[in-house]
Amino acid sequence: MLLKILSELNGTSGAEKEIRQALAAELEPCVHSLSTDKIGNLIVQKNPPLSAPKVMIAAHMDEVALMITAITADGFLKFQPVGGIDPRILVSKPLKINALTGVIGAKAIHLQKPKEREQALTIEQLYIDIGAKSKEEAEKHVKIGDYAYFFTEMEKLGQGYLKGKAFDDRVGCAILAQLLKRDYALNLIGAFTVQEEVGLRGATVAAYHVQPDFAIVLEGTVSAQMMEVEEGEWVTEPGKGPALSMLDNATLYQPQLLRQVIDLAEKMGIPYQLRRGHSGGNDAGRIHLSREGIPTIALSVPCRYIHSTASVLAEKDIEHTLNLVDGILKAIPHEFSFR
């Protein structure tokens, strides 16, 4: 399963090589061309260039991770997050740094003073233990600037769910790869982008270079369907189909495009939901502003616990997202217009 392969590989912002290589190997036999631009995006041309509309589908390869910023005299590693990570979820989590295993440590609760116990730990209070006894020993294996990754095996969870790391946005990458194996009567470009988690940087370059007539962004998005959140505040719900974005911190999506996607989903009998929150953003934030403007939509697979060591999604949401995008591509330009 491609998603399992992608989920278990490591590739944070600026270090997406493993993901790019896996996708290139998967797609090389069934596409016209593959190229890597100077920032690291993998650009895949499905067919020889056609006069038909040029459609770009984007999914980002990078995941959140940690960067080593210092090594203490005792051989512990200090770090900073790459992308948005809640420090509260980090204590005791296992990591991979190069070929090493490490564990995130902090002052044990038994040693904390009463006031310390009342406050959440900050990044500055955390460190990584790799079993080194000194700075010199640690430096034999780790350098400043190395990345530390969560490692989680992807596996089935309960009935119809998957658990794994980096579903944001390896699930989008897996869906895009499946679409690029199919044939469409249009000029289809796949953009596997880099550095989304640190400012949508790869998408900026890809959109400027490709110059599509229309763009679709595939994402793994936050789901707030959990015990602590009232039902009326759920942003998305796993198992209810792809989430269609209306607005977020980076994009106000065009209502006429959203309406067409909804109409098509209902015609095809594909379940969908509206993303009912405006926080965050995705590659659409840069794509839709490129050059003279690019009509853009975003479809996301709801994931619980994104930006953590393990996320959870519903398998059928992957299928429904794939089928809806397939329907959009087949409907262009006669039944789906972005003009």
Summarize the structure.
With 339 residues, the protein is of the alpha+beta class.
Distance between the termini: 37 Å
The global form is globular
Helix count from the secondary structure assignment: 9
Mean pLDDT across the residues is: 93
- Label the CATH architecture of the largest domain: 3-Layer(aba) Sandwich
CATH topology descriptor of the largest domain: Aminopeptidase
Q: Which band does the percent of strand residues land in?
A: 25-35%
Provide the domain count.
Answer: 2
Class inferred from helices and paired strands: alpha+beta
Describe the sheet with the most strands.
8 strands, mixed
Instruction: Please bin the fraction of helical residues.
Output: 25-40%
Poorly predicted runs are none
Strand order of the largest sheet: 1-2-12-3-13-16-14-15
Give the C-level CATH assignment of the largest domain. Answer: Alpha Beta
Rounded to an integer, what's the Rg over CA atoms? 21 Å
Q: How would you spell out the order of helices and strands? A: HHEEEEEEEHEHEEEHEHEEHEHEEH
The beta-strand count equals 17
Q: Name the CATH superfamily assignment of the largest domain.
A: Zn peptidases
Keywords: Aminopeptidase, Hydrolase, Metal-binding, Protease
Organism: Desulfitobacterium hafniense DP7
Protein name: M42 glutamyl aminopeptidase
Pfam families: Peptidase_M42
Explain what you see.
The chain has two domains: 2-63 and 165-331, 3-Layer(aba) Sandwich (Aminopeptidase); 65-150, Peptidase M42, domain 2 (Elongation Factor Tu (Ef-tu), domain 3), CATH 2.40.30. The protein contains nine helices and 17 strands. It starts with a helix and ends in an 8-residue tail after the last helix. The strands form three sheets. It has an eight-stranded mixed beta sheet, sandwiched between helices. The chain has a six-stranded antiparallel beta sheet with strand order 5-4-9-6-7-8. It is of the alpha+beta class. It has helices at 2-8, 17-27, 114-117, 135-139, 167-180, 201-210, 255-268, 284-287, 315-331; strands at 33-36, 42-45, 54-60, 65-71, 77-82, 94-97, 100-105, 127-129, 147-150, 155-157, 161-164, 187-193, 214-222, 243-245, 273-275, 296-303, 311-314.
